[in-house]
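Researcher: Next entry in the queue.
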Amino acid sequence: MATIRAKEEYLRDSFRKIAELKNYDKGYISVPFVNQLIDLDLQGFAGDIVVYHANAERVKADKVVQIPYSGNSFATSVAERLGTLLVPGRKGGAIPGAWNHPIIIEEKVLSFTTGETSSFTFNGLEKGDNIYLVDDVVAHGYTACLIIEEFRKRGINVAGMAIYFAKLFQPGIERIKEEIGISPFFVVGIESITPEGKITLSPPQF
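Model: Structure for this entry, 206 residues:
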C-alpha cells in the first residue's frame, strides 16, 4: 500500500467494520485491533500516518514517550518510524532496579476509564529533551494534560502528541488544546455515537 491516503482509508474501513459501542453513557468504544488483540500491520499504517504528519509539521523530537499502558504498543511503531529512542513508561510507582533516571507522576483526579487514581513512572528523560507523546485513545484528556504539565515542570519539552483514535464527542482534544497549547494529531477521529450503536467518523485528513 503505497500512499498515506490509501493507508488512512484502509484504517478507516477497518474501524467501520470492527469498532463497537460498548457503553453509550460513558462513550466506551471497543476497537480490538488497536489495544486488545493488536494488528501490527494496521498499527504500522497508523505509525506511517503519524510520521508523515510529524515530518510535514517539522516536529523535532529526540525521544518518543508512551502513555502507559495502552499507548505502549503504538508508541513503539511511531518511534521506530521516526528513528528515535523510545522512553519506557509504566503504571504504578514501583521502579525497576535497572532504571537510572526515573520520573514518577501522581494522578490528581480519578481516571475516567478505570475510576481510580494511579501513578505513572518513566525512565530516561532529562531536562532539555524534546519528546513526542503517544497514546492509543483520548477521551477526556486529563491524563495527557497532567503528564505534559509535569514534564514541563522538569524542563522537558513536548514537541507534539499523536493518538491512534480520538473520541471527538468527548472533550479531551479540546482540553489539551486549551489547557496545554498543543494540538494533538489523531489518526482516526470518532465524531459521534448514538444509543443504537452507530459510530460516525470525522472526515479523513489526507
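Model: The chain has six helices and eleven strands.
Researcher: Noted, moving on.
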